[in-house]
Amino acid sequence: EPILQIKNLVKTYPNGTKALKNVSFEVPKGAFLSVIGLSGSGKSTLLRCINRIHEPTAGSIFFEGQDITHINEKHLREVRKNIGMVFQHFNLIDRRSVLNNVLMGRLGQLNDHFLGGIFQKWPEEWIADAHEALKIVGIADKAYVRADGLSGGQKQRVAIARTLVQNPHLLLADEPVASLDPSTSYSVMNYLRDLNQKRNITVVCNLHFLSLVRDYSTHVIALRNGEKVFEGKPTDITEQW
Ligand code: ADP
Ligand code: ADP
């Protein structure tokens, strides 16, 4: 059974922009699916509909066999514990320590909105897990540094560590390396691949550079003006996308 099924998904923003037009596809469990397309083609909207930051206008989303398109807030919070998210601009809490940011992952998935009610006292076991996650992404020594004191690549590794402690079944990554330089990009992509291969976390990743798509993904879809215009293997993509 696919981990994710998208059926006839439509998203029309309140201003009338049709960002997604009848998009359907499935994501097999364990896949590393890249979503490609020019800026404005609907990639980000797609991920935001999947984790319900945005409400789809029509169509349906099945996660682990369950229709999550119209579930209530309480149920959504449960589902989101199993869906991690990594953003282009990292979405860390600047004035908090790196360790604190990673610990936030244990509270379940973060979204664009500020997550209210920060824990003041974290369980010892969670703290140990957070240190371990920081070790895995190679920045154990930054645990007590403020998040805004890090470089872009380091910030994205903190975001990945935050996902590691969340231990989701599905990870959504929205242009995770778009604001990083090429060598840092490869390092961050390698950590995403480890998550996918060593922890069996299915990944859906918006990417712009075709070289990264070819190097890292197992499946690809392409969007153009909100429509799915390609679905296949990375080796089948031609430069025209
Ligand atoms: P440039 O023309 O300066 O290389 P582009 O952003 O058009 O800038 O392309 C950069 C890289 O992204 C190239 O490798 C290109 O093949 C790839 N690319 C271009 N358009 C897309 C797209 N819609 N989706 C994914 N990759 C793309
Ligand atoms: P991509 O991630 O491929 O760059 P987006 O999903 O961000 O594409 O955008 C798809 C289309 O929806 C674009 O035309 C964009 O301008 C529009 N759009 C994105 N977010 C909003 C919004 N909150 N309100 C209105 N239009 C939006």
From TrEMBL:
Gene Ontology molecular function terms on file: ABC-type phosphonate transporter activity; ATP binding; ATP hydrolysis activity
InterPro entries assigned to the protein according to its UniProt record, in alphabetical order: AAA+_ATPase, ABC_transporter-like_ATP-bd, ABC_transporter-like_CS, ABC_transpr_PhnC, MetN_ABC_transporter-like, P-loop_NTPase
PROSITE patterns assigned: ABC_TRANSPORTER_1 (PS00211), ABC_TRANSPORTER_2 (PS50893)
UniProtKB keywords: ATP-binding, Cell membrane, Membrane, Nucleotide-binding, Translocase, Transport
Domain (ABC transporter) ranges: 4-241
Keyword Cell division among record annotations: no
Keyword Repeat listed: no
Pfam family, one: ABC_tran
GO cellular component term of the entry, any: membrane
The protein's name: Phosphonate ABC transporter ATP-binding protein
